[in-house]
Amino acid sequence: MSTTHLGMPDFPTAARHELADSQLRHNLANATATIRRKRGEVVEELDDWAQLREAGAALKAHTLSNLDTYLERFEAAVTEAGGTVHWARDAAEANRIVTDLVRATEEREVVKVKSMATQEIELNEALAEAGIDAWETDLAELIVQLGDDAPSHILVPAIHRNRAEIREIFRREMGKVGAPAPEDLTDEPAKLAEAARQHLREKFLRSKVAISGANFAVADSGTLVVVESEGNGRMCLTLPETLISVVGIEKVVPSWQDLEVFLQLLPRSSTGERMNPYTSTWTGVTAGDGPQDFHVVLLDNGRTNALADEVGRQALRCIRCSACLNVCPVYERTGGHAYGSVYPGPIGAVLNPQLHGTESDMDKSLPYASSLCGACYDVCPVAIDIPDLLVHLRTRVVEEHERKTPLDVLMKMASWVLGDAKRLTAAQKMASWSRKVLGRSGTIGRLPAPLSRWTDARDAPAPAQESFRAWWQRTRGGDR
User: Buried (b) or exposed (e) across 302-340, using 16+ Cβ within 10 A?
Assistant: First the structure.
């Protein structure tokens, strides 16, 4: 199943289908409640959480305001350390660059670290068209890939699956593409993890090319950072001969010291842990240690469009923790597939329309996929005001796509009249003069269409014989 937003129905239509799945809702409720509880416990341990949050927001805002400077600094540092930087305007260019790099190695398969950016550009599908197999090594991503499914959560892509479903996927699919699952496989988490470990081991040991994303890219040193919980990422980052990292341009941070803030905010907000079990950092190429051919693909794919929006650019502060998904009452009931993109939930509802534009029915509908309860803003570790962004994007959708109605024309006329004192005075005099026509009975009578839709449904007083402004001028001798 493709993760593309193209051709997707609008959110209400897609959500209606997901809401009919009672097992999905049960799985989501259990998983999100567990993550919410764990997050709450570890956040309460820090007396300076509010200050950390403010620091994270300020660092991201500063970086985005000076993004060109920091990206050039990052490119120079990577190059000096022996790596190669490529710039990709969009998904097609990024896929072409990565495909060409893999072909240059003459390999026909790659192992992958969990990466939102590569899912965003549908890299696996592009590699498959080129005859290259891409194997996901994150446990949840493996489940999704083997099940011919799509991710439904930023942190836990297979959150919509329960253990029994995962067991059946492993037993049915693993043997088709590698080491099969044990015949006596149960749905115990430890047994499922062991089956995945055995299945992936041969791929880790034979693959000579790996593809990753990055959680952060340090401008001063050219360092990339990946945080994870399983160790599969470290296997991909250290064993292969060639490493290709696809990184959104918003992932850059100015200095190594800035990681002190984000490596406290991210694990607590995402997995409810004090720190990630595995934090891998690498800088360029080191002789005899790790991959000897290193490439970074810096991905735009709509990000500069979002950056140009003074209100919308704050969505680029997102560190992909998924905290907003875990508290969202809409996401908890519909799951991620209803959002039609690799970025689901509240952050997806504001990020997707900015990256893609609002041409598709799905992207136009996403800003409305929210109750505006504000829970997403409360838990965001970098203080993205998602409710404000949703309202901002709703306005944009209306301005760009809604057909003008007679009421829209009337509201523009009202705005024109109310915007000038002389025009308002003239309109008030005209309204007072029209009282004889409109309000013989003391109320406004039936008006012609389309205003009849308003007058037929309510009684409103006819205009006063004299406006307050005119009365004040007559009795007080002034214009105030």
Answer: bbeebbebeebbbbbbbbbbbbbbbbbebbbebbbbbbb
Q: What three-state secondary structure class fits 82?
A: coil
Query: Which residues contact residue 474 at a Cβ distance below 8 angstroms, ignoring those fewer than 6 apart?
Result: 466
pLDDT in tens, 297-320: 999 999 999 999 999 999 999 999
* Greater pLDDT, 449 or 184: 184
Task: Please tell me the chain's helix, strand, coil percentages from 3-state DSSP, rounded to the nearest 5.
Answer: 55, 10, 35
Q: Assign 5 a pLDDT band (cuts: 50, 70, 90).
A: very low
Residue at 239 is within a domain: yes
70 and 184 fall within a common domain: yes
Tell me how crowded residue 48 is: count the other CB atoms within 10 A of its CB. 10
Q: Does residue 189 lie in a domain region?
A: yes
- Over its C-alpha atoms, the chain yields an Rg (Å, rounded) of 28
Domain end (from 270, 304, 338): 304
Residues 298 and 418 reside in one and the same domain: no
* Cα(245)–Cα(383) distance, integer angstroms: 27
378 is a domain residue: no
> Are the beta carbons of 137 and 200 closer than 8 angstroms?
yes
Element (H, E) at 61: helix 49-65
The answer to whether 170 and 181 are in contact (CB under 8 A) is yes
Residue with tokens 């005001």: 385
Show the domain range for 426. Answer: 406-476
What are the pLDDT digits (tens) for 65-124?
A: 999 999 999 999 999 999 999 999 999 999 999 999 999 999 999 999 999 999 999 999
Closest Cα partner for 8 from 398, 350, 405, 344? 344
CA distances from 289 to 239, 241, 324 (A): 9, 10, 39
* Number of structural domains found in the chain: 2
Share of the chain above pLDDT 70, in %: 94
Q: Does residue 343 contact residue 152 with C-beta atoms inside 8 Å? A: no
Cross-strand pairs, 68: none
- The answer to the question of residue 341 being in a domain is no
Q: What is the pLDDT of residue 436?
A: 58
